[in-house]
Input
Amino acid sequence: MARGATLVAEAHKLGRDWPPLPEGTLAKGSNVAGLTVELALYEACANYDLDLSLVTSQAEQLGVKSGYRDPGQLGTDRWAALVAAHRAAEGHKLVVNVGTALTVDALRGDGFFLGGLIVPGPALMRASLTGGTAGLKLTEGQFDPFPRSTPDAITTGAVLAALGAIDRMAAAMAQANAAPERIVLSGGAASTLEPHLSSPVTLNDNLVLDGVVLIARAGR
Output
């Protein structure tokens, strides 16, 4: 019905622009940003007389079974994304979120979550060169198969490093007899990788929220 975004540093402003909500409205959320943000979420909902329920990662839920040694350790954003991806597309798949961090999760067609990777996202890779390497300043370059400027070299290197993580996970799935048939892609920086992916792509900017909705509707 309505969508929006705000900076984590401005989480205390959540709820200021929400419209009047009908009686019986439920609040369901996922938080991986720490206690300060969690308190802001609860406060925003309390201002509308809403009881907030936060998603917790489960051993098994809505057809998805976690392969994590400790299922509760998995980030709830990743868990919700897996739930949504399982419902959205059949077959073996990679569930990829491109944000500050890049997460690459392997999901079999039967709903079993094999495991996944967390690496810096392309923007964080570029920023790390600014802070950790003398003489390399953060400037936006263009993707070029043969970069001929330092900004292009940094931008292209970050994109190829991210693609490499995706390709290695795809190869690992193939070795486990679960070669991915597609990539379910989300995240604010998804557009930086999508043109360079060779597998079929299902793009969903709201994958985590779709998973939260599915979990809320299931009453869990």
